[in-house]
Task: inverse folding
């Protein structure tokens, strides 16, 4: 990272940023052409291992790309605030962000799908618990991104 003065190395701090972010931009590669899609997400951080969960249609472009190439990256940001200056070069932005990469797979087992959907709902519907009927599990695709590397940055 070029701006090491803005780098966050403490993983607990990075996880707090992830908790604050509402959208994760998932980056995939479609035959050497970048494909980025903003997604709602859930996550799990256990024993130093970060896993992101996403859901979507059980068919379509995203699904096809993942089946063809499981390498993925992601970016999420929050706490955005414009810093104004007198001159154009004095403008800046306050932010917190997390970027990383890893391998994404399509969850095929029922228990794995439930786990992913549970993590998603835990993020957005904090104190509620949900059941996922088989009809829902059959109609939705759940993706799991096992993160190999991630970093945080703040300004």
Result:
């Amino acid at each position: 990272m070029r701006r090491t003065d803005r780098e966050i190395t403490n993983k607990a701090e990075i996880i707090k940023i992830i908790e604050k972010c509402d959208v994760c931009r998932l980056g995939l590669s479609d035959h050497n052409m970048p494909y980025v899609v903003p997604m709602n997400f859930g996550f799990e951080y256990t024993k130093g291992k970060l896993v992101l969960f996403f859901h979507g249609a059980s068919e379509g472009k995203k699904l096809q790309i993942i089946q063809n190439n499981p390498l993925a990256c992601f970016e999420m940001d929050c706490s955005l605030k414009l810093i104004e200056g007198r001159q154009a070069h004095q403008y800046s932005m306050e932010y917190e962000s997390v970027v990383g990469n890893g391998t994404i797979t399509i969850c095929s087992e029922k228990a794995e799908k439930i786990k992913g959907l549970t993590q998603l709902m835990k993020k957005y519907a904090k104190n509620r618990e949900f059941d996922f009927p088989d009809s829902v599990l059959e109609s939705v695709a759940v993706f799991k991104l096992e993160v190999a590397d991630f970093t945080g940055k703040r300004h």
Notes: Residues 110-124 form the longest helix (15 residues). The beta strands are 7-8, 24-30, 33-39, 42-46, 49-57, 71-83, 92-106, 140-154. The longest strand covers residues 92-106.
